[in-house]
Amino acid sequence: MGCATSVYAAVGTKKKLTVPEVVVFVPSTRIPAQSDLQKRLRGRIPKDVADRLSSLRNQIVFVAEDTDGSAIPELRRGLEEYLSHLIGLTNKEYGLEGLVEFKWRSLDDGKHQDASSSCVANSWFEVLSVVHMLAMLALSEADTVMIPKDHSGSSIRTVSSDCKREAVDLLLKATGYLEFCVREVLVHIPPEIKKNFPNDLQDGVLEAISFQTLGQGTEIQLGLAVDCQKATLSVKRRLACEQLSYFSQAYHCLSGRDHINNGYAKKHMWFIKWKFLESKAAAYYFHGLMVDKGNEPSCHVKAVCCFLAAEEILSESKKACLTFCLAAPVTRDAPLWGAMKHFHQKIPEVAARKSQMYGYLLEQEKVLQALPDLPEFQLSLRPDDYQLPEIDPAWESEKWETQSQSLKEHLNDSDDDGDESETK
């Protein structure tokens, strides 16, 4: 399951049913499938380099399949070490860029690889897939951090500040991986190859996940601000508006794409819609509180319009959440946490109280009842800067010279054998 790591069991039938819970959305994770690297690389690179590449990749395949991707520290270390060897294949001087066919599949499909497997003969595709997997592992880890191990079944959840900050750090790390994919890897891959990529690796989808991840990081920061007595109202409004901007951009990246009505992509879109509506409700709520500080009657009218809009949008977000949970694969609605725990109580309460307080003004100032525009802010959350690891020393020029010389000798020996055969 690409979504969550927390699983609830429903016992009472012969087969145990599991329904995962989602806090941080993780798109369908792709893992490497068995590929014969040694066969394609034999005689083209030093044997120890080929053996090490194959061994590292096979180890990642085994751990990912054996643990369903849950062994995050082990997989991360393996992927980073594999990358340091893999980037040698991208060097144009060696002429190896399109030599090997790299196979990947969706982790959701278990052992059945045909439905979503992809096979591309391009070493930059392999780099893209590895860095993308690192991003998905970071998202999975952030999801785990945000879900307590003791599932009490309460409709309210308490997550420690340390866990929230750790989750934000992981989300920024994931965004750094994704932005690196878009800026530094996709540019090396020809369009005719990219058009056959799985949907998860298309640039629009990668950008959508990046914006969505920043939006979730801002959502956690907003929750911390709501719980902090020193955080000002203007800071909270700014964070809510920034969160709205991130999810708006994520929605824009996915909208209009043909694949969004199919399978997991449809669930992904519903998640973004849900979070977009939540952040919009929060932004109007805090904007209403700011506007209501004015002394003019028009300020109070605009504030009430904001509160009523926030209440209506919050109701729409609950429906979007339900649609998201029911979209395949089915997931569990997470208990209220963070800022939304605050909004579900405060928004209806404030909207009702302010409507009663300024109801007479709404009648008098009907012309001013248009919903005010939300302020725009420069986005403050920045992803981590990711760079590929240093190339492994095994790709040393001396070894290449030795390999090249032995290859020429091998070819000369073959020519001699051919001459002898003709003589006979």
So how many helices? 13
Helix content: 55-70%
One letter per element, helices H and strands E, the order comes to: EEEHHHEEHHHHHHHHHH
What is the averaged pLDDT score?
A: 85
Rounded Rg: 27 Å
Shape: elongated
For the report, how would you describe the main beta sheet? 3 strands, antiparallel
Report the structural category: mainly alpha
Query: Per DSSP, what share of the residues sits in E-state strands of 2 or more residues?
Result: under 5%
Description:
With 424 residues, the protein is mainly α. The chain is 59% helix and 5% strand. It is built from 13 helices and five strands. The chain has a three-stranded antiparallel beta sheet. A two-stranded antiparallel ribbon has the order 1-2. Helix 7 (203-227) packs antiparallel against helix 8 (233-254). Residues 1-15 and 407-424 have low confidence and may be disordered.
